[in-house]
Design a protein that fits this description.
The chain has about 180 residues and is mainly alpha-helical. It has a single domain, classed as Hypothetical Protein Ta1238, Chain: A. Helix content is about 60%, strand content about 5%. The protein contains 5 helices and 2 strands. A two-stranded antiparallel ribbon has the order 1-2. Strand 1 and strand 2 form a beta hairpin. The radius of gyration is 18 Å and the shape is elongated.
């Protein structure tokens, strides 16, 4: 199978199901941003030694691929696209609760940085927030399952907590914002 098809050379792409859209369409922007986020998650996974974190990040990557599939499908209820479930969100919440139990209370805003891997988490958090905004924008013109927005919202929180936990584990300074 060739990776190039030349079908996008005119500035359009196909959704699952065959509908063609301009590459600048909200739908394409939404799943493209989810794809960008997935790449950053891979970068964090490649720079993390903790097997539990690495395994959860791999699960997150699979879920993001599923979200992208939903966004790239004309009918979000297609039987060919796996479902996103509340349990997927609960996994993130349990991971955040476990990490939070080992962290000092948050009393200030935190400046991104301190260690390269921590910074990757903050970049992922920001890209996740952008993906969420893109999916919300799409939802105003097309049917989008609300669970996709909830998952992305929770995932950005996860990356913030993960950044704090990794900073602690790596003995990196957590720099607070001083206005």
């Amino acid at each position: 199978m060739k990776i190039y098809t030349k079908s996008g050379d005119t500035g359009e792409t196909s959704l699952f199901g065959g509908q063609r859209l301009p590459k600048s369409h909200f739908r394409i922007e939404a799943y493209g941003t989810v794809d960008e986020l997935n790449s950053y998650v891979g970068l964090i996974r490649d720079n993390t030694a903790d097997d539990n974190v690495r395994n959860l990040l791999k699960t997150i990557q699979n879920t993001l691929f599923t979200i992208g599939s939903h966004l790239a499908t004309e009918n979000s209820h297609s039987p060919h696209v796996p479902e996103i479930k509340d349990a997927d969100i609960e996994v993130l919440e349990k991971a955040m609760d476990a990490m939070d139990s080992e962290l000092p209370a948050l009393r200030n805003f935190i400046l991104p940085g301190g260690h390269t891997t921590v910074s990757f988490c903050h970049v992922a958090r920001c890209v996740c927030r952008r993906a969420e905004r893109r999916v919300v924008a799409l939802s105003q013109d097309a049917e989008v399952s609300p669970i996709l927005i909830r998952y992305l919202n929770r995932l950005s929180d996860y990356f913030f907590v993960l950044a704090r936990k990794l900073a602690q584990d790596l003995n990196a300074e957590e720099v607070v914002w001083k206005p």
